[in-house]
Amino acid sequence: MSINIQLPDGSERELADGATAYDLAESISPNLAKVVLAAKVNGQIHDFHTPLPDKAEVFLLKSGTEDALAVQRHSGAHILAGAVKRIFGPDVRFGIGPAIADGFYYDLELPRKISDEDLPKIEAEMRKIIAEDVPFTREDLPKSEVIGRMKEMGQNYKLEILEGIGGET
């Protein structure tokens, strides 16, 4: 079985069922697949590894575009959270970590105040995480499972956020 994808120039591409934006980019050019960060699928930004729906309109996002910058900033927030957790340990409590117009941030509760001396350590740890080149993965889980995980980890701020989100996943 196959899917048909519409490209911004109006052309169509036929791909195997379950194909991702990465597969689409690679079918166009292996070099393109190396520089694409994410995709806009039917107007919504998706990661590179989510299966594409049939008849989707897909725009591949490369560095240098506003949408790609938002993806990079979002990724930066996740990398920051990982670095802080490595340095400060399991007692870190996470709130929100959004991309914003001029960067990103993360609301956190730490076992102690961050000092000026901590900032280069956090930056170095972020660079280390980036160098590890571990891909971001997305999991769609039942909301009840996510709530259970957050309770186990003591992530009370994440639980508050989850309470305000509708749906079951």
Describe this protein's structure:
The protein is of the alpha+beta class. The protein has two domains: 61 residues, Beta-grasp domain (Ubiquitin-like (UB roll), Roll); 71 residues, Threonyl-tRNA Synthetase, Chain A, domain 2, CATH 3.30.980.10. 42% of the residues lie in helices and 20% in strands. The protein is built from six helices and nine strands; from the N terminus they run ββααβββαββββααα. A five-stranded mixed sheet has the order 2-1-5-3-4, sandwiched between helices. A two-stranded antiparallel ribbon has the order 6-9. α3 packs across α4 and α5 runs antiparallel to α6. The radius of gyration is 19 Å and the shape is globular. Keywords: Protein biosynthesis. It comes from marine metagenome. InterPro entries: Beta-grasp_dom_sf (IPR012675), TGS (IPR004095), TGS-like (IPR012676), Thr/Ala-tRNA-synth_IIc_edit (IPR018163). It holds the Pfam family TGS. One of its GO terms (molecular function) is threonine-tRNA ligase activity.
Structural key phrases:
two-stranded antiparallel ribbon, 42% helix, alpha+beta, Threonyl-tRNA Synthetase, Chain A, domain 2, 9 strands, 169 residues, nucleotide binding, Ubiquitin-like (UB roll), 2 domains
